[in-house]
Amino acid sequence: MARPERHVFACTQNRPPQHPRVACAGGKGSTALLKAFWAEQRKRQAPETVAITYSGCLGPCDQGAHVLIYPDAVLYSGVTMADVEKIFTRQLEGGEPVQRLIAAETVW
Questions:
Q1: Do the Cβ atoms of 25 and 14 come closer than 8 Å?
Q2: Per-residue pLDDT tens for 18-73?
Q3: Does the chain have fewer CB atoms within 10 Å around its N or its C terminus?
Q4: DSSP 3-state assignment of 8?
Q5: Domains and CATH numbers, the chain
Q6: pTM for this structure?
Q7: How far apart are the first and last CA of the chain?
Q8: Cα(1)–Cα(39) distance, rounded to whole angstroms?
């Protein structure tokens, strides 16, 4: 496997329904989001340039679903299925973060 240019970590944290913090997988749909990133990776034939990995909690659960991109060190909050293609085009291929999705500095 070649070293990817960028690495996407999608939070797929799950918690019991009674837990006080909403989890990205449970209440924010991040499992489907992760699958959408994998599908976009295949569609763009980008497995050599973009790695996509599920992760545990990335922090500010109430603002999920969260996606973290390295080496850029950009945390996106409130990511939806509609954002996957834009993230791929703008940041993963173009190197420019999607400003409206970047987590607030007070969060991360």
A1: yes
A2: 777 766 666 667 889 999 999 999 999 999 999 999 988 887 767 778 899 999 99
A3: N
A4: strand
A5: 6-101 (3.40.30.10)
A6: 0.88
A7: 31
A8: 19
